Amino acid sequence: MKDFKKRSLSLLSLVVILFYTAVFFLLPISHPINNVYAATTFSQAKVVLSNSRFSYKAVLSGTHTAPLTTATIATSGQADNDTGNIFPKDNICFNTVLSVIGCSENKTFAVNNIFAVSGSNQFSFTPATATNLAASDYVVSTQSATMTVTFTPTSAVASGGYLRVTIPSLTSNYTDGIPDGGGFDANKLTNSNINANITPTGFTKSATALSYSAGTHVILMTLSAALAAGTEYSFVIGSTSDSTLRFINPAPTGTAHVRGVADTYSFTFNSEDSSNVIIDKNILKLVPIDGVLVSATVEMTISYTIGAIAATQSVCGLTTSVASTATTVPFGSLASSNTFYNLAQSHTVTTNATRGYSLTVQYNGALSKDGAGVTTIADTTCDSASCNTTTPGPWLTATNNGFGYTMAGDDGVWVTPTLYFRPFPTSPIQIMTNSAPAASKVLNTCYRLSVSGTQQTGYYFNKLTYTITPMF
Q1: Which of 436, 443, 363, 360 is nearest to 407 (CA)?
Q2: 302-470, what's its fold?
Q3: If you compute the radius of gyration of the chain from its CA atoms, what whole number of angstroms results?
């Protein structure tokens, strides 16, 4: 009896061992791994946004009555609750309940200025709105980008295979052309135009399809030639010339956003065989972030210098008799009558003023003995009384006594003909000007004096005033 039991237990043990052995060998055969992703990734893959700046999507604070050129946004309830990611010259639009898709009035406006002083939630824009705006209306500034995918397959892909791109989107309103907080809006990219707006490098495609579903945009490219393992390829998604044919960058997510903190989106990229079995797969990252406005205020600058000119210099078509200084025109002792004495000074101007500058001159009266204004050296009338304070004339004859000036060089109001003179005025008269910014412009003023043999002896002087004015 005992032997029978032992034999029964041994037989049972053998049956159990054989059962588990059969199961061990049969399981792999009865459940082949034909529905699991390949255990390879692209040997390198990346996606680059041509513009990684967040789109802007805020809500107006209160009713805005047309016409208006200033907007105030709500400081809570949206991720964009300040003006931190809109900058001067950005295009904005207002998305009302009635417009739903696109912009109110079907137009955009240009940001003029951000009012940092009166509040970080106000900005001005042009032109003025023509319709009233409600507190629930969106303020939108759209940023879009091309997406450049560069990749190197680990495994070859035969012609007729696929490249599949999955781009995150919202679960609704993901093709309305308005930025979404949480996904990329397809804008005007559709299944009918996607093929023309994907540009491959290194490979060819026979077709491209774009499909939408809640949470994803899917692009499927059919390859018309094989991809080799170990070879780098790339393709660009979106038009380089038409911003409406690109995916719209997301606005920040949530109801509050810390400026300078990026959001991260997963961008899935597969290669597949003709049966849609995945060959290589990578999950890439798209990282939009706030833009950075770099600004500086360049103040108006102007530099003006009166310079001395030495004796025996050839200036204005004449030769200087005596050296000048920056503040004096010292003719000195006039040993000879009916003789020309010549001196000169230079005027050097640099300015960044938008409309340039103007230099004027005036004097306080004729050269007079001891500055008393009684006994004077007459102002020149040139030869044949041909000049006055506004009209120059030739002055070549020293017996035509008097005091006057001529000019030569840059930006002179009159610099020709040579040896034409005129007397100084008692009211400012323009002698040098430029209607644009100017760099190191130099004009020489040349002074001429001749007295008769009967001019009363004594010390004669007057004062010149030069005035430089930058213009905007």
Answers
A1: 443
A2: Immunoglobulin-like (2.60.40)
A3: 42
Distance of alpha carbon 189 from alpha carbon 178, whole angstroms: 13
> What is the C-alpha to C-alpha distance for residues 48 and 151, in angstroms, rounded to an integer?
12
| CA 133 to centroid of chain Cα atoms | 30
Burial class (CB within 10 angstroms; exposed 0-12, middle 13-18, buried 19+) of 264: exposed
Query: Would you list the DSSP string of 37-59?
Result: --S---SEEEEEES--BPPEEEE
| Cis-peptide, bond into residue 67, ω within 30° of zero | yes
* Global model pTM greater than 0.85: no
pLDDT in tens, 291-317: 999 988 889 999 999 999 999 999 999
* 413 close to 389: Cβ distance less than 8 angstroms: no
Please give the structure tokens belonging to residue 382: 């040139």
DSSP H or E stretch at residue 140: strand 138-141
List the CATH code of the domain at 56-141. 2.40.30
**8 Å CB contact between 322 and 330:** yes
pLDDT digits (tens, 9 = 90+) for 32-41: 333 444 459 9
Secondary structure (3-state) at 77: coil
Region(s) of the chain under CATH 2.40.30: 56-141
Question: In this structure, how many other beta carbons lie within 10 angstroms of the beta carbon of residue 17?
Answer: 10
Q: May I ask the CATH class of domain 44-52+144-286?
A: mainly beta
* 3-state secondary structure at position 322: coil
From-to residues of CATH 2.60.40 in the chain: 44-52+144-286, 302-470
Please return the burial class of 65, using the count of CB atoms within 10 Å of its CB with bins 0-12, 13-18 and 19+.
Answer: exposed
- With vertex at residue 190, the alpha carbon angle to CA 189 and CA 192, rounded to the nearest 5 degrees, is 125
